[in-house]
Amino acid sequence: MGWAFSYGFFGGGKIFGICHDDPDVTPTDKVRYDACVQVGGAFQPEGIVGVQDISGGRYAVARHKGPYEEIGATYGALLGQWLPAHNHKPDKLPCLEVYLNNPQQTKPEDLLTDVYVPLA
Questions:
Q1: What is the pLDDT of residues 20-59, one digit of tens each?
Q2: pLDDT exceeds cutoff 80 at 12
Q3: DSSP 3-state assignment of 6?
Q4: How far is it, in rounded angstroms, from Cα 28 to Cα 5?
Q5: pTM of the model
Q6: Phi, psi (degrees; rounded to nearest 5) at 13
Q7: Domain edges within the chain
Q8: Which fold has domain 2-41+57-118?
Q9: Whose CA is closest to 9, among 61, 45, 33?
């Protein structure tokens, strides 16, 4: 995020994360997470910064309000309750988190994050 801030990526594009692993199942040192900022098509990656496209398709979306440390409850409700109740199954693609406000300017209890679970 420090890199993105230094290049002026805050203030216009989306900030989100790509969650490759479930931290309740995967050992902490093995959890893969990509911190992302939206960039235009002409952007050229450099160093450890890369570019990836996010797959389209159908997603179930839930809004999490509160600290990031408590987002597991939102995943639990979406994956464990909503999807089965609506006869959906998650796809094997990674889940996404879209951060809707700035944690440096927002109290933890007021943070808003949209959780996207890809549907099979």
A1: 988 888 999 999 999 888 887 888 888 888 888 887 899 9
A2: no
A3: helix
A4: 26
A5: 0.87
A6: -95, 170
A7: 2-41+57-118
A8: Multidrug-efflux Transporter 1 Regulator Bmrr; Chain A (3.20.80)
A9: 45
